[in-house]
Amino acid sequence: MLVLCPNFAIAGAWLPKAGSTQIIANSYVTTKSDAPLNGDLEIYAEHGVSNNTAFVLQATVSDFYSGNLGGNIVGSIRIPVRTIRNWQSSLQFGVIGAKSDRFRDFDSGVEARLSLGRSFENGIWVDGEFGLRNFRNINLSFWEAAIGKRLDNNDMVILKGFGDNYLTSVFKTKTQLSYVHNFNSEWAFELGWRLDFKSYHDAPAQGVVIGIWHQF
Description:
By secondary structure, the protein is mainly beta. Helix content is 0%, strand content 68%. It has a single domain (21-215), classed as monomeric porin ompg (Porin). The protein has no helices and twelve strands. Strands 1-2-3-4-5-6-7-8-9-10-11-12 form a twelve-stranded antiparallel beta barrel. Strand 10 (172-182) and strand 11 form a beta hairpin. It is globular. The model is unreliable at 1-10 (pLDDT under 50).
């Protein structure tokens, strides 16, 4: 799910305009007791093929800084379902490749997700997403929810939570608070803080999120 600053298009449940491309690259870095530096590299790209179709490419490299690499890459098509007043919904279908401790080798599967969002006149928007992935007839689920507030024409704050049982059999949950500033109609910068609850028994990992957003 991706929501850009006021001069950018809004995504998530909303599709980009035809011919428009938006990219966000995030680096999440955390320190742990068993590793001096750890974190993920996350990339999201979306292109408006038409007013009713968008192509989405997502990639996550987990444990990027430790060298114990895992992660996934997803290619999918997203279409709008229905727009009612300020409500918007969309469906997304795609294929996924993954490497993790659960899937020892690089494996492939399919995924589907449903997004629902609403924008308000006071600059607040909400967006939620639920999805399923299938590997070797094993169903894995994930979710994401966000609320954002535009502070002015160039600044926005976002609070979101997201989780999955994709890389392990344990359902993991994360929360993140971010500030986003757009420099112009093409470039924006994100700075945030993330808590990563990997299990019920361990203390959550936490760290900084730095992102660069681009639209053209």
